[in-house]
Amino acid sequence: MYDPLIDASPGEAQPLADSYWHHHSQPQWPKTSNLPDSADVVVIGSGYTGLNAAITLAEKYQQRVVVIEANHLSWGCSSRNAGFVMKSTGRLGLADWQTRYGTDTARQILTEHEYGLEKLQQRRSECPEQLQAQLGGYYKLAHRPQAVAALRQQYQTLRQFDPAVRFIEPEQINGVIHSQQAHAALHFSDCFALNPLLLAAATARKAASSGAQLVDNTRVIALDRSAEGYRVTTSRGTIQTGKVCIATNAYTPKGLCARLDNRSLPVLSSVIVTAPLTAEEIAATGLVPGNVMMDTRELKYYYRLLPDGRLLFGGRGAIQGKNADDPVFAQRLLHAMWQSFPMLRRITEWQYFWSGWVSVSLDDYPRIGAIDDNLYAAMGYCGAGVSFTSVAGERLADAAMAQRLPALPYYQSPLKRFPMARFRRLGQWLFYHYGRIKDGDWR
Ligand SMILES: Cc1cc2nc3c(=O)[nH]c(=O)nc-3n(C[C@H](O)[C@H](O)[C@H](O)COP(=O)(O)OP(=O)(O)OC[C@H]3O[C@@H](n4cnc5c(N)ncnc54)[C@H](O)[C@@H]3O)c2cc1C
């Protein structure tokens, strides 16, 4: 698999990942165009961020926008994620924000995340299949008894901000889920799950109907300053533009833009999907379609029951792209699934297994805004972008149109550079070992 820390190209004209979504959805994609000679704004990357930026640029600012995608539209994370719609991004919770930046900032951050959720609900309501949304809420599960006290502590902070959150006590957890690795939970009732591929196609349709031109299977190779702004060299010719928004996120190839080099760690997240569970198995696990689950581990596992009764189970994958498809990583997820649900031990195979790159920033939260004259970027969501990208895309467009962004840390500074960047992968490997010890998974 393409490795952003090693390869200079994300590939070209590649079909969508061989995921469960790809095999079980019939997305309607909009028409794509050939590369025009000029644009007011070029957006690079057609995931949720790039498409949402294009919608705002075309609708709100009447810009001539061209979105350039190296592969199939939304080929990166946006067509292959787990579809959890949460009120968060990055790795920091509201309690962390409160500690770092104070109560007012934490409150404004929640408002920004709620805006993302609203925007997604709006998009959902516009779609014929309602994006196959499942509306049960998100449960953050204490994966072992020692994690309960910290989770309860988080609840004490969260309840000041968010009335939609409640605490599930240890003696109540069996009413939610029958897992050996669930000892209490936080429940966020307004979060939900959807089909990410349908969301990608719906966002692409909206961008096209707003007037953005979508150019697929065309790789951006270089950005050079010109009298008008930038000359963008692609694998299918050049385009002159006033401004460029980079929305390639974790898939940003080495050398595309010096201002982004060494400011993100691309990390593989992997998913398995089982065959449909039997009605008895579903009853034994207590899983309910619509509930999305993630645990308190440092190296988190996440899962949800899909509308057709299959279990989607995800977590960290390989460290290097060349190992991404090694079945050992799917097997590891299967083991983790058995640990949570011993009643599913008869399931010894997965039917789908795929991975994708998420962008981890040094200080655990994303940045959106200007990185140079007429050059803007959004990246570093740390694996939580399904809902936030709808806001991030809009803010990216606002930044490109010189509008003032909310006074939040996301929008006020560039991503930090990783110190000793060439050792990022070694650091990741060490972190995985530390995480396993901290999570009580070392054996
Ligand atoms: C397995 C997995 C599960 C996940 N689950 C969840 C979840 O449940 N909930 C959640 O909130 N988040 C989840 N995420 C993260 C979420 O999917 C991402 O944060 C989000 O989709 C990022 O969107 P994006 O538009 O910024 O980037 P992407 O969707 O990754 O798009 C970047 C695009 O840029 C293109 N590109 C790169 N280089 C070039 C170039 N030189 N020229 C042209 N195009 C280029 C790529 O081909 C790619 O299509 C998950 C991620 C993975 C991998």
TrEMBL record:
Annotated ranges, domain FAD dependent oxidoreductase: 40-398
Keyword terms, alphabetized: Oxidoreductase
Name of the molecule in the record: FAD-binding oxidoreductase
Keyword Metal-binding in record: no
Chain ranges passing through the membrane: none
One Pfam family cited in the UniProt record for this chain: DAO
KW Cell cycle (keyword) present: no
GO cellular component labels: cytoplasm
InterPro entries named among the record's database cross-references: FAD-dep_OxRdtase, FAD/NAD-bd_sf
Organism field: Idiomarina tyrosinivorans
Entry GO MF terms: oxidoreductase activity
